Amino acid sequence: DIQLTQSPSFLSASVGDRVTITCRASQGISSYLAWYQQKPGKAPKLLIYAASTLQSGVPSRFSGSGSGTEFTLTISSLQPEDFATYYCQQLNSYPRTFGPGTKVDIK
Amino acid sequence: EVQLVESGGGLVKPGGSLRLSCAASGFTFSSYSMNWVRQAPGKGLEWVSSISSSSSYIYYADSVKGRFTISRDNAKNSLYLQMNSLRAEDTAVYYCARAGSYWGSWYFDLWGRGTLVTVSS
User: Fold this and answer.
1) For chain B, which ranges sit under pLDDT 50?
2) Which of A68, B37, B50, B82 lies 20 to 30 Å from A92, alpha-carbon distance?
3) Do B95 and A87 lie within an 8 Å CB cutoff?
4) Which pLDDT belongs to residue B103?
């Protein structure tokens, strides 16, 4: 099974900050990686798929990059509504594993 | 409106059974693979199971294999998860999620609000 790790697990940032979250896969997954945002009590929301493709309706301050085993999610200028937990997911093979999550909190 | 609505959660004793349902609307359900994802209280997301559009391909997480059964009824626009031999560690919010694809890349682009399953004596 492919394992995903995320760093950091917790991030404290201010509105306007540039934020980068890293997701690493235990083996190569090409570009078959998605990023989700989840707010407390809500379902996850798709942000990025195919490592770097922005889902329709998602603000352009979100971007993704990477391939193989290392991927990043970047928020160029953090907004109040971006405080949430972010998960990566690999869709290269089954099981469709998720990373452990990165919680972005207000500094 | 394009949406997924889960139902069937509740309190069940260890060893018991429960059947979750997910009603789809606003899109051509029969064209999409579907998934169940769960989230234990205060924990991260865990993929549970996937089923292809025609039910030809089915996959399970090792943690539920042999106990859970995924199925769908395209005529009723519905997805199901039959859960048997439930354990305390199955306690979670269960989400159904649609699998979209684009040029071979997959993603879960539509999620329901979830239904809570609590396994406790």
Assistant:
1) none
2) B82
3) no
4) 84
